[in-house]
């Protein structure tokens, strides 16, 4: 838990969010500013600021993130049509919240390259 971290506060239940899945390692909740018909954030409970702060200790955690991305996509009904998992790192990568998270976007066709 990092005292001034928005996502740590959501994980601790201090700030509300629409949590659709939770287990011992992560939470999944709806993005407050959805960029697709279905837009979830997969957020590890461990406070890790960015992708650059991951260590080998987190390998299992990141694998679990992708497994849960598939589960949520299937359970939400957009897995067959297709979806996107996105991690933004640092300012140039579009990161605005400094607690690692993975966007799960579905319900529309994605374009390439991303903006
Ligand atoms: P990023 O720009 O990759 O760091 O993503 C941060 C995401 O967090 C953005 O898509 C925001 O819309 C989302 N966000 C910010 N505050 C909240 C909140 N209180 N509840 C849910 N999502 C949020
Ligand atoms: Zn945090």
Description:
It is a single chain. The protein is of the alpha+beta class. The protein has a single domain (6-106), classed as 2-Layer Sandwich (HIT family, subunit A), CATH 3.30.428.10. Helices cover 24% and strands 22% of the residues. The chain has three helices and five strands, in the order αβββαβαβ. Zinc ion (ZN) is lined by residues 2, 5, 7-8, 47, 99. Adenosine monophosphate (AMP) binds next to loops.
The main pleated sheet reads as:
5 strands, antiparallel
Low-confidence stretches: none
* Main CATH class: Alpha Beta
| Fraction of residues in H or I helices | 10-25%
The CATH architecture designation is 2-Layer Sandwich
Strand content bin = 15-25%
Structural class: alpha+beta
Number of distinct helices:
3
Please describe the structure with a list of short key phrases separated by commas or semicolons.
115 residues, 3 helices, binds zinc ion, five-stranded antiparallel β-sheet, alpha+beta, binds adenosine monophosphate, 22% strand
Blueprint (SSEs and pairs):
Blueprint (H helix, E strand, L loop, with lengths): L5 H6 L7 E4 L3 E5 L7 E7 L14 H18 L6 E4 L3 H4 L8 E5 L9
This protein binds adenosine monophosphate (AMP) and zinc ion.
Question: In a few lines, what is going on in this structure?
Answer:
This protein has 115 residues and is of the alpha+beta class.
């Amino acid at each position: 838990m990092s005292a001034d971290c928005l996502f740590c506060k959501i994980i601790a239940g201090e700030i509300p969010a629409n949590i659709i899945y939770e287990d011992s390692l992560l939470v999944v909740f709806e993005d407050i500013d959805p960029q697709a018909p279905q837009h979830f954030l997969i957020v590890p409970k461990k406070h890790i600021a960015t992708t650059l702060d991951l260590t080998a200790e987190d390998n299992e955690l990141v694998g679990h993130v992708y497994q849960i991305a598939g589960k949520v996509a299937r359970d939400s009904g957009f897995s067959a049509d297709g979806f996107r998992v996105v991690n933004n790192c640092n300012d140039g990568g579009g990161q605005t919240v400094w607690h690692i998270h993975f966007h799960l976007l579905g319900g529309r066709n994605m374009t390439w390259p991303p903006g």
